[in-house]
């Protein structure tokens, strides 16, 4: 009886878990985005922007959506930390690449970093979402300009799902749409990258 009930409990509480890495150059707004995702989906205030320091290790955020769990892994973007990104590729179900739209001088650097990511065999077929962040800033490059810049590497994306969306992590605009896009895509890519089944 006990094993039946505990088996039933496990069955009823099982759910799918997905891992999503958040990468991009330093200062792009990745940690601000993670805090914003947490505040929108968990209903608790995230860290205030002035308390967010450059990331050296890893920040984790966990949200539940549509009966599934999504674990976000926000990695540091400084040049010497970018070599760590690939350690997270094998386990990830999607990649978020955050771009600082208000810093046109670093756009080429950004494109080179993204190109390196998508050419990595470990993430073949994994959905990629590019986020044109800081859209609240008057001098920010508009979505069309960002798309044009990244179009040059679009053919290297292969058959995977990919998209460029405008957001302001600071103000929260576009963030919910971005997470909804990701949730749909990781589910659609289940055959290639099955979720991890957890019980809770
Ligand atoms: N105006 C504006 N500023 C933003 C936005 N998102 C982030 N910032 C600012 O950009 C700076 C860097 O933000 P972080 O979230 O620390 O950037 P990061 O990508 O995590 O940087 P690393 O951890 O060094 O890789 C901070 O001053 C943020 O307040 C945004 O949407 N709009
Ligand atoms: Mg950070």
TrEMBL record:
Signal peptide: none annotated. Mg(2+) binds at residues 31, 55. GO terms for biological process: Golgi to plasma membrane protein transport; intracellular protein transport; protein localization to Golgi apparatus. Keywords: GTP-binding, Magnesium, Metal-binding, Nucleotide-binding. InterPro entries: P-loop_NTPase, Small_GTP-bd, Small_GTPase_ARF, Small_GTPase_ARF/SAR. NCBIfam families: small_GTP. Belongs to the small GTPase superfamily. Arf family. This is ADP-ribosylation factor protein 3. It comes from Mortierella alpina.
